[in-house]
Write a structure and sequence with these properties.
DHBP synthase; globular; 7 helices; alpha/beta
């Protein structure tokens, strides 16, 4: 489906930042291993340094090395809602997940979006994982269409990938933290957790 696969790979491997559709809202992301690109995302968005990015992939298995053991309740939620509009915040693996992604916190958000374009982009990346946030300036509305993403990110992101008709629903993901077996909702979004 994606026509500019080589360009996407080249941008990412050269510390670049890309904008892309997901199942919820448009995203802005880079390789987690590129501190330079992560810094660029914060600069583009004028994002507060204490707000972490999350890690997204096309498959939960690619995210497991970035986190410590996921508690049982977290595993149940993953089975039920991944891929989908749920971001799970769990204890990170400090050897794999750098502080510059998590704002120095010992947790990281992980998500597997249910969107074919995003999943193809992940297939192109070396680790199949992107450090990501929404494609808008901080405190501005999230981009819900390709046109809005272009308006928000033209001249800022290194590449804005078209959606090939795979549009997003326009509502942010629900963010839930799993600590031991306690669940804390940080943001109520597209998924109403049945817990």
């Amino acid at each position: 489906m994606i026509k500019n696969a080589d360009e996407i790979k080249k941008v990412l491997e050269n510390d670049g930042v890309i904008a892309y559709v997901t199942d919820t809202v448009w995203g802005l992301g880079c390789l987690p291993s590129s501190e330079k690109a992560v810094k660029k995302i914060y600069d583009i968005k004028k994002r507060e340094p204490q707000k972490p990015l999350i890690l997204m992939s096309n498959d939960i298995y690619h995210l497991l090395s970035y986190v410590k053991i996921i508690p049982k309740k977290g595993q149940i939620l993953i089975k039920k809602y991944f891929p989908g509009a749920l971001t799970l915040v769990v204890k990170k693996n400090p050897d794999m997940t750098p502080d510059y992604i998590t704002s120095g916190m010992d947790t990281v958000g992980i998500r597997v979006p249910d969107n074919k374009v995003f999943q193809e982009i992940c297939e192109l990346t070396p680790e199949h994982v992107l450090a990501t946030t929404s494609a808008n300036l901080s405190h501005q509305p999230s981009a819900k269409t390709y046109e809005q993403a272009l308006a928000n990110m033209s001249g800022l992101a290194d590449l804005i990938i078209e959606d090939y008709g795979h549009t997003c629903k326009g509502l942010e993901s629900t963010v839930a933290g799993i600590f031991d077996d306690d669940i804390k909702i940080f943001r109520q979004g597209a998924v109403n957790l049945d817990i």
